[in-house]
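Folding Problem: From Residues to Backbone Shape
Fields: amino acid sequence; protein backbone structure tokens
RECORD BEGINS BELOW THIS LINE
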Amino acid sequence: MPRRLPAVAPFVALALACVASLACLSCDSPTLPLPPPMAPTVTAGSDANHFKLTSACGGVEGGVTVIIENIDTTLADDQRVTGTLASPCGSWDAIVYGNRGDVLNITQDDGSVVSSPEVFQLPQ
């Protein structure tokens, strides 16, 4: 004679099905936007047209790619854009080419989302 399952078995099965459905739905949740990076500090570079940008832990999300674009279109393309990888704590540094007073757009990219830019002006 077949054995009868207790009356609670259908409720357990339903609860497990609900948990599995919620787990699948959470995978489709929208990605939160990245905030703009915090403004870096600037020190002199190797010559008058190079600047070292530095940001301490928390300046960006850990492990992201930091992209720095000089908006001066008179510069060569390879002088306008540079980037670096942030440390696990979100610190980073990079050497950028530019002229005093140039404006930089600094963003962070985690591979799926790019932040809005921190608009940053090099010292005059």
